[in-house]
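ARCHIVE CARD
CATEGORY: sequence design from structure
SOURCE FIELD: tokenized fold
FIELD CONTENT:
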């Protein structure tokens, strides 16, 4: 991937963590496919020597530039979908 590979970091946690790989967005899908192949092949080569809990999984994450945000909705725009009320209202009506 050359210059299109931007970096790597280790992610840790109680359940074992993982790895993060950064690719140029223009070649992101290509990088995901190559990475999936490399990880699966490495697992196959090492699985008789090292226990693996699962097949490697490649997720696609994106950075949310806005962070957490909210909008104040008014009038009919503030209503939930009708299915929500169909599920929530009957138990409320039965409550004393």
């Amino acid at each position: 991937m050359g210059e299109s590979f931007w970096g790597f970091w280790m992610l840790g946690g109680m359940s074992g963590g993982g790895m993060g790989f950064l690719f140029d967005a223009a070649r992101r899908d290509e990088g995901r496919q190559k990475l999936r192949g490399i990880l699966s092949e490495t697992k196959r080569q090492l699985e008789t020597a090292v226990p693996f809990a699962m097949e490697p999984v490649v997720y696609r994450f994106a950075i949310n530039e806005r962070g957490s945000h909210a909008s104040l909705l008014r009038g009919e725009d503030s209503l939930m979908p009708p299915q929500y009320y169909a599920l929530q209202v009957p138990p409320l009506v039965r409550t004393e």
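CARD ANNOTATION: Helices lie at 28-46, 82-94. The beta strands are 5-11, 18-23.
SHELF: design records, drawer C
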